[in-house]
Write a structure and sequence with these properties.
This protein has helices spanning 21-34, 64-81, 94-102, 104-113, 115-118, 159-166; strands at 6-11, 38-41, 84-88, 126-129, 141-144, 147-150, 171-174, 182-186, 193-198, 220-226, 231-237, 242-244, 250-252. With 253 residues, it is α/β, with parallel strands linked by helices. A hairpin with a 4-residue loop joins strand 10 (220-226) and strand 11. The model has no long low-confidence stretch (mean pLDDT 91).
């Protein structure tokens, strides 16, 4: 742990190849400048459109191998400037597992297709948390005894509040909604607070399936500092490739 606490960055929902290039480059500059102790990807770094059960919404379908190449390049960059990288699998990565369950050919080739294999191969100081959990536990990563990271348990408008209620006394950060939200409450039992925060997204803010309708998505990420007994979390919005960190430093592409 670095002096003053563990330095944390958390991001999610890049959805390669639907990334917002300016937002992604701003986040990468933050990683390079802050050199965090741990970076947590909150899932859906891949879109995995080829494995979706939904009807195609564009004529240009990027090959799955290109999605993997883009995600691996991002992870390579993050690991160059951080001490540990954690990938909490999202529902879009899990599309590949669902496809394998439906199709015999998918089952036979799962070891070659799985994001779990392709994103973690050969990496050190890396942890991949499966979407379907381990040993009956809900898929999560414990950043500290009082703070956990998940991809997302709800997409509702009050999803962050629901995450705080469902986490049953632990603070929680999540992705999945692509929105920015924060809820904090005094603990009912004992002293201190619990909170839930969503990390926004690093993908394009107008999805191809919702052209013509307004959305409430926000480009951004979470920066945090984890102490021995408490933590402090900040949501950092990215606007046109520019963000201002809690330190007051402006980062621009």
């Amino acid at each position: 742990m670095s002096k003053g606490g563990l330095k944390l960055l958390a991001f999610g929902d890049v959805h390669f190849p639907q990334q917002d290039d300016k937002a992604l480059e701003a986040f990468k500059k933050v990683v390079q400048d802050t050199k965090p102790d741990i970076v947590v990807c909150l899932g859906d770094v891949l879109d995995c459109k080829a494995f979706s059960t939904h009807a195609p919404d564009t004529e240009d379908d990027t090959p799955y191998q290109q999605e993997l190449a883009q995600a691996n390049a991002l992870f390579d960059f993050i690991q160059k400037y951080s001490k540990k990288l954690v990938m909490v699998e999202g529902n879009h990565e899990y599309r590949v597992i669902r496809y394998a369950a439906r199709e015999r050919a998918g089952q036979a080739t799962l070891s070659m297709l799985s994001p779990r294999k392709n994103l973690g191969k050969g990496r050190r100081n890396f942890q991949y948390v499966p979407y379907d959990g381990n040993e009956g536990m809900y898929a999560h990563y414990a950043i500290s005894p009082n703070l956990v990271a998940v991809h997302g348990w709800s997409f509702a408008q009050d999803a962050t509040r629901q995450h705080l209620r469902m986490s049953q006394g632990r603070s929680i950060i999540h992705g999945h909604t692509h929105r920015a939200d924060h809820v904090m409450s005094q603990k009912v039992w004992g002293s201190g607070t619990v909170e839930a925060m969503s990390a926004g997204c690093l993908c394009k803010l107008i999805p191809t399936y919702s052209v013509g309708s307004p959305v409430t998505w926000v480009n951004g990420f979470i920066q945090g500092f984890i102490g021995s007994k408490s933590h402090t979390l900040y949501f950092v919005p990215i606007v046109d490739g520019t963000c201002v960190l809690p330190s007051g430093k402006e980062v621009a592409t």
